[in-house]
Design goal:
Helices cover 50% and strands 5% of the residues. By secondary structure, it is mostly helical. The protein has a two-stranded parallel ribbon. Helix 4 crosses helix 5. The longest helix has 20 residues. The protein starts with 10 loop residues before the first helix and ends with a helix.
Length: 110
């Protein structure tokens, strides 16, 4: 596998990763999601599938060829998109970075 497919994770691998406390990041690739609304829809689908404590933004801001989040200005719009879909503030905070901080803190205590 090459390119972005080499870093993709599929449901049979994502489920056990989430079950052990891990975080699955969703890339905001322009060819998968034409805009932030569609990206937020997919984030919510992932939250439903894996739980809000196991979903994160796969930003790689400077590593993506083209993104629906090309800068941090667009990133700042995501909380509103997720709130309109009914995600609670604490869960939004988790998805938008809190989950990665939790995993990092756990890893640093090992």
């Amino acid at each position: 596998l090459g390119g972005t497919a080499a870093r993709a994770i599929y449901a049979p691998l994502a489920r056990p990763l989430a079950a052990r406390g891990g975080v699955i990041g969703l890339w905001p690739l322009w060819y998968s999601y034409a805009n932030l609304d569609l990206y937020a829809d997919e984030l919510m689908r992932m939250v439903d599938a894996y739980g809000a404590l196991h979903v994160g933004i796969g930003s790689d801001m400077f590593g993506l060829p083209r993104s629906v989040i090309p800068s941090y200005a667009e990133f700042a719009e995501l909380p509103g998109h997720l709130a309109r879909r009914g995600l609670k503030e604490a869960d939004t905070d988790a998805v938008l970075g809190g989950n990665y901080l939790r995993v990092l803190r756990q890893a640093m205590t090992v």
